[in-house]
Amino acid sequence: MVRNRAIYIFIAVQLVFSSAKVSGQQVSDTSFDPKIAIPTHPIGEGPRVYIDEGHHNFHTLDGRYSTFANLLRAYGYQVDSRKGEITFENLHGTDVLVIANALNEFNVNNWSKPIHQAFSGSEIAAIKSWVAQGGSLFLIADHMPFPGAVDSLASAFGFSVLDGFARDAVKIAKRVGGPDVFSIQEGTLSKHLAAQGKDNTQNVDSIATFGGQAFEIPDNAISLITLPDRFHILLPDTAWKFSPSTHSVNVGGFSQGAVLEFGKGRMALFGEAAMFSAQFSGKDKRPMGINHPKAKGNISFIRNILYWLTVVDKE
Questions:
Q1: Cα–chain-centroid distance for residue 36?
Q2: Record's InterPro entries (predicted)?
Q3: Ramachandran sector of residue 134 (left: φ over 0; alpha: ψ -120 to 50; beta: rest)
């Protein structure tokens, strides 16, 4: 385990340089074709998935999650956006609500503490009631400030998010770049149905993530992506601004992706957003998401998550 403060400073420096490209030049890879041969449902007849766009979301249907939406459509899902305030009534007809990197208006251009909640108390109550009565929530909150913005929503289901930047300290100290890979072999990727699908033809050996946060799960949740002991999270007061005094926490055993059965419904929480997208980052247009060579398992992983949220044991 890496404990040296000098290592933390080095990690912070590396994060600053990498973020300068990612945050400023993170665009959708519109040319990426997932090539789905066998859809999960007849095209255009599957469960209805709505992507939230009513809360200053960093990832939207026609923006950074356009490939995610196209992938779900290729699997047969009906995909559209959901704008405005969320109420129990307007969730009627929704099978899966996807919320990706929501923000409060106050923090759209101000990624410094305090991080205000993206959802009102009445919206959280509506979402919680809707899930308890059979709905499925797919909540995605990347690195700071996004976990802080959905802290109350995640807490309503028993999760405790950390509003920071989780990184493999050993890999960064060795100056090894690229995404973080989680695998069955290492024991960091779950064999749960939500990860592995309904039969052996859908098994996923490994998946890749591209940064993000870490969170603690309630006793009745299942971690799909579990961080090994070499992972730490940096908790700055302002996103991407680090110093030797920046608080850091070892997050070995914490989750970066988990699922929960809640009442008659289901929930998936993920602490990384790019893994579900296909994007380019930086001036050199480095692939980030399902278009990355190390993320080949992510496509099937997405299929399995959506299938678990909508079909498995609900038939």
A1: 22
A2: Class_I_gatase-like
A3: left
Note whether residue 174 is domain-resident.
yes
Strand duo 26-28 + 278-281: pairing: antiparallel
Q: Count CB neighbours of 217 within 10 A.
A: 20
Sequence-ordered list of residues with C-beta below 8 angstroms from that of 161, at least 6 positions apart, any chain:
141, 147, 148, 150, 151, 154, 213, 215, 271
Query: Range of 124's domain?
Result: 5-310
| 315 within domain boundaries | no
CA 125/CA 19 separation, integer angstroms: 35
Maximum pairwise Cα distance, the chain = 55
User: What is the rounded distance in angstroms from the CA atom of residue 54 to the CA atom of residue 245?
Assistant: 36
Give the closest residue to 285 by CA, choosing from 10, 12, 30.
30
Read off the DSSP letter of residue 205: S
Between CA 74 and CA 79 the distance in angstroms is: 10
Q: How far is CA 266 from each of CA 26, 43, 88, 139, rounded to the nearest angstrom?
A: 31, 24, 16, 11
Sign of CA dihedral 66, 72, 73, 75: positive
Q: Alpha-carbon distance 212 to 25, whole Å?
A: 17
Residues in the chain: 315
Note the helical H segments in 214-281: none
CATH of the domain at 166: 3.40.50.880
